[in-house]
Amino acid sequence: MPRLLALVVVLAAVVAGLLIPVTDAVAAPAVIVSPTTVNPGGSFTVSGTGCGGPDQAPPNTEEHPWRVWVGMGWINGTVPRTAPDGSWSVTLRTDATHPTGSGFVVAHCDRPGARVFSYEQVRLFIMPATPPPVAAPVPAPVTPPAPPPVARPTVPRSSAPAPASPPSAAPRTTTPTTPPSSAAPSTSPASPGPSAACTDCGRLAAEEPLEAGEQLSLSWTGFQPGEQVTVVMRSEPVTLGTFTTDATGTVTAALQLPDEAEAGAHTLTFSGPLSGDLVVLPFRVAAADGAAASAAGSAAEATSDDGALTPWLVGGGLAALLLGAGGVALHRRRTAPGV
């Protein structure tokens, strides 16, 4: 009987030794939480030591690892195996809808089959997110008012007549100059020749005499687009006008022959600074009505003088014939026999 009692005591002591945790004699270290204040949706890191170090048994192996469980409310995480020196670390993230306030982070060190110890709890604060600072409105720059305009004194115009301009030696122009066209040249010039819009080109080609002071409408192609074309009447040069070609290099000129243009042969020269004397058109100016009448009067006068002499010439001729006939008859009577 005493032997049986001693055996029960020994077995109880062994069982008691197995049930007592290995690290009960070791004070549980505190965990480190960083940061201790986060916003909803923010992250924080929990770390600690003393779980499965080299001085603790059983050894920390892959088959029998020492591990840590960390949690705060429904936020939790696990370290599957601590480091050989017993340290560990885990990062947790709060939910964006997590209520604000404070809570305690709890961590437990355990090994397969048993919880070894629990770390001291650490408080974590979840604070509402700070709204971004609102920038102060920048006042708009103030533009100073513009100074009032300064009135300038008005100088009265002189009532004296302007001095007469001296006569110019340039050739006389009978028609105004056509203003330059603003259209940009778009096509290359056509070959020289009269255009379809030329009204009086046929009269010049037919050598039809023109009257002094007569108006002509001529249109000619072959110049550069936008070129200034001057029309001069020769033999004695008289400028009849300057005209601008269109985008196709066609010039249209409304001309008037001088009132004092002499009768006879003349030419019209179309000249441009780029194309030169491109067109030379010969024509004739008919004699004025006064000169024709004078010539007709001279012819009539000569005819009337000849008509006055004609009766005298006829009468003289008849008298000479009669005298000749009388002389012949007298000669025959004297030569007749018996006379």
TrEMBL record:
Q: Region labeled Disordered — which residues? A: 145-200
What keywords are assigned to this protein?
Answer: Membrane, Signal, Transmembrane, Transmembrane helix
Superkingdom as given in the UniProt entry: Bacteria
Compositionally skewed regions (Low complexity) per UniProt? 152-162, 170-197
Q: Does the keyword Magnesium apply?
A: no
Q: Mark the transmembrane ranges.
A: 312-330
Q: Where is the signal peptide?
A: 1-27
Protein name, as recorded: LPXTG-motif cell wall anchor domain-containing protein
